[in-house]
Structures are given as structure tokens and as C-alpha cells.
Design goal:
The protein is 41% helix and 20% strand. It is α/β, with parallel strands linked by helices. The protein folds into two domains: 200 residues, Nucleoside phosphorylase domain (Rossmann fold, 3-Layer(aba) Sandwich); 61 residues, no CATH class. Strands 1, 2, 3, 4, 5, 6, 7, 8, 9 and 10 form a ten-stranded mixed beta sheet that branches. Strand 6 and strand 7 form a beta hairpin. It is elongated, with a radius of gyration of 22 Å.
Length: 272
């Protein structure tokens, strides 16, 4: 699934129209929208990092997100000199109040500027050599708890700068900026889809997992370790039946040792 988050209705409307999203009426704390096939969702968070974090939590609770889902915050931001209308993929997020910093994992190519961003608690006209908004840090730190870092990103469109102050921003102008750059949003999502698909495949619980934990009565910690090893096995030996390898194993510790040894001794080990 794809989960989109916008602070303002004027940011969200062009996206809602482009993807033909409809409002989910049973949820009213935040406005949630969804495509007919339920593969694309959007939540309007309201202004501010606290609202953004709360909206991510609410979105997750209502729609049961997956670790292999795509999370994207789309909105406007200010900058001292970047031209209005420029699209920027965020490579560094700093919370101004607490000084906390995150570095989104950009493992793909996209035809737009990459820039750092600072999240403030209030609108600011003190322009500097970083983008600034009021939502990204709240969105990002909460999404990290629910998703996978490589699939969580912020895409910002410059709406104001030293020559054109934030005080002059109008809703219609914001809609035009988002509409003009819809294809950039689609391009980013398309760049993330192959990675999401691969992570979904890797994170799928193997069929043998339940059989093994029932047979060996593993602790919770041992179950987590076993699942990690099985996922590694599925990547390294996709056509091999692991049950043949562990058919004579007597206990959980020996089970994990046997799988680890096989992974380490293979020509290309992904065990670490």
C-alpha cells in the first residue's frame, strides 16, 4: 500500500483528484481517503508536527499498515533561495525544538533536487539555506516506528522564499504548485514500488515457520531470530526446502545453529 500525508486540504486536493480517492466516512478524527482498490491512501493531518505524528498513528490504527508499505509526506516548504515551485526530496530532517536529526534512506534515483529540511513549531519568515516546514519531523519519527526506513520519505515543493514571503501564500497558489508537480509525486512512488515489492517478498512469513516453532517450542526471542534466518534462507536458497536440512535437529538452539552454518558456508552468505 501507499500512504500519503498532507497537512492542508489545498495540498491534498490535487492528489485526491489525480488518484481518484474517496473519503472514508467511518473515520472522523482525521480525514482519510482511499482509492477504489485500497492500494493508495491519504490523510490530511492538519498543521504542526504533533498533528502529523497523531495522524500517522491514527492512519495506522484505522488501515492496518504493513512494514513493506510506502509512506510519503507531501507538502509545501520555504527556503531562502530555491525558486518557488522547485520540487525537493528531503535527505535530512531536523527538529528545530529538540535538535533531533534523521537521514531518510534514498536508494533510488529521481529527477529532482535533494535538500535538508528543518521542522519548526510555528511559521517563520527567517529564511535560511535549508527548507523548513512544520510537519516533517512529526511525520517521519512516527512513521519510522511503523514502517521501513527505506520506504519513508518527504517530498516538498518550495512555496515561499526571500523574495516571496510566506505571508503571501494562498490556498489556490498551493493547489497550483501541487498540481504542476503531480508527475514528480508519481515518479517518486514508482521509484519506491520495486523496493516495496522486494521487501514484501523478503518479509513474508515462510510456510515452514509455524511448523518449526510448533515442533521446537521456541521462546519469543528465538522465534524472531528464526524468522530472520528463514527470510535470509529464502533469498539465498529460494528453490531449496529447508525442512530437509533440519529434519534430524533435536532442539531450537541446534536448529538455528544448523541454518546459520549453512548460510555462512555458502558461496555468498547474507548472514551477519
Amino acid at each position: 500500500m501507499i500512504h500519503l500525508f498532507c497537512a492542508l486540504s489545498c495540498e491534498a486536493e490535487p492528489i485526491i483528484q489525480h488518484f481518484n480517492l474517496f473519503k472514508i466516512k467511518e473515520f472522523d478524527l482525521f480525514r482519510l481517503y482511499q482509492s477504489g482498490d485500497k492500494n493508495i491512501t491519504l490523510t490530511i493531518t492538519g498543521v504542526g508536527k504533533i498533528n502529523a505524528a497523531a495522524a500517522v498513528t491514527f492512519h495506522h490504527a484505522c488501515l492496518s499498515t504493513s512494514p513493506s508499505d510506502i509512506w510519503l509526506n507531501v507538502g509545501i516548504a520555504g527556503h531562502s533561495s530555491i525558486p518557488i515551485g522547485e520540487v525537493c526530496l528531503i535527505n535530512k530532517i531536523t527538529d528545530y525544538q529538540y535538535g533531533t536529526t534523521w537521514y531518510p534512506q534514498i536508494l533510488f534515483e529521481i529527477d529532482c533536487t535533494s535538500a535538508a529540511l528543518i521542522t519548526h513549531d510555528a511559521p517563520s519568515s527567517q529564511y535560511q539555506n535549508s527548507l523548513f516546514d512544520m510537519e516533517a519531523s512529526g511525520f517521519y519519527q512516527m512513521a519510522l516506528r511503523l514502517g521501513t526506513a527505506e520506504l519513508i520519505h518527504c517530498l516538498k515543493i518550495v512555496s515561499d522564499n526571500q523574495q516571496h514571503s510566506v505571508e503571501n501564500i494562498k490556498a489556490d497558489h498551493v493547489k497550483k504548485l501541487i498540481t504542476k508537480n503531480k508527475l514528480k509525486i508519481v515518479q517518486l512512488l514508482n521509484s519506491l514500488k520495486p523496493l516495496a515489492k522486494e521487501l514484501s517478498r523478503i518479509n513474508t512469513i515462510p510456510e515452514c515457520y509455524q511448523t518449526l516453532i510448533d515442533e521446537y517450542h521456541l521462546t519469543q526471542s528465538e522465534r524472531i531470530q528464526l524468522l530472520r534466518l528463514l527470510n535470509q534462507w529464502s533469498v539465498r536458497f529460494p528453490n531449496d526446502d529447508i525442512m530437509c536440512l533440519v529434519s534430524n535437529i533435536k532442539n531450537g538452539k541446534s536448529l538455528q545453529k544448523k541454518i546459520k552454518t549453512k548460510l555462512i558456508e555458502s558461496d555468498f552468505s547474507i548472514y551477519d
